[in-house]
Amino acid sequence: MSSSEFQVTGMTCGHCEAAVRAEVEQVAGVENVDVSAQTGRLVVGGSQPIDDAAILAAVDEAGYEAASLR
Amino acid sequence: MSSSEFQVTGMTCGHCEAAVRAEVEQVAGVENVDVSAQTGRLVVGGSQPIDDAAILAAVDEAGYEAASLR
Predict the structure, then answer these.
(1) I want to staple A23 with a disulfide (CB 3.0 to 4.6 A). Which of A32, A51, A58, B70 is the partner?
(2) Taking CB atoms and an 8 Å cutoff, what residues of chain A touch B18?
(3) How close B63 gets to chain A, by Cα (Å)?
(4) What ipTM, to 2 d.p.?
């Protein structure tokens, strides 16, 4: 299981978390999504390597901005 | 056209507005809904009188609290 972390800005509530989760879950290889509006932290996991750029694009699609943390 | 105003607490974003709107639109007689997360103001209009208690219940169903303003 590999995972990647991102910092998302602009989420304010559980609906925002759900919007980000819904988009990120559609990215190829994503099997697990942890997202917190309170901290802005997004952790994405899967058994295969995941394309960080695709995650950033998915967050953008949901209407938020993200930066990769590693 | 009659209208009623309510003050809603807890909305933080457009998703919250949409959640409140979706529930309030289902109340009998509601033909128009204006809702703002920024101000918390909810204005509900219709050609027939609308049951304030039903609006308060709808907002509660959406996960927020409201008080009637008149």
Answers:
(1) A58
(2) 15
(3) 11
(4) 0.73
Record the tokens describing residue B59, joined without a space.
């907002």
Token pair 């999504």: residue: A33
Whether A12 has its CB under 8 Å from any CB of chain B: the answer is yes
Q: Check CB contact under 8 Å for B16 and A19.
A: no
Confidence of residue B30 (pLDDT cuts 50, 70, 90): very high
Q: What is the mean pLDDT of residues B23-45?
A: 97
Model confidence pLDDT, tens digit, residues A36-64: 999 999 999 999 999 999 999 999 999 99
Find all residues with CB under 8 Å of A50, minimum gap 6, and list them: A2, A4, A27, A28, A29, A30, A44
Are the CB atoms for A66 and A39 separated by under 8 Å?
A: no
Q: Which domain holds residue B21?
A: 2-68
Q: Say which CATH number the domain at B52 has.
A: 3.30.70.100
Contact list, B13 vs chain A (CB under 8 Å): 12-13, 15-16
Rounded distance, CA B44 to CA B66, Å?
A: 13
Overall number of domains in chain B: 1
How confident is residue B57, by pLDDT bands cut at 50, 70 and 90? very high
CB of A35 within 8 Å of a chain B CB? The answer is: no
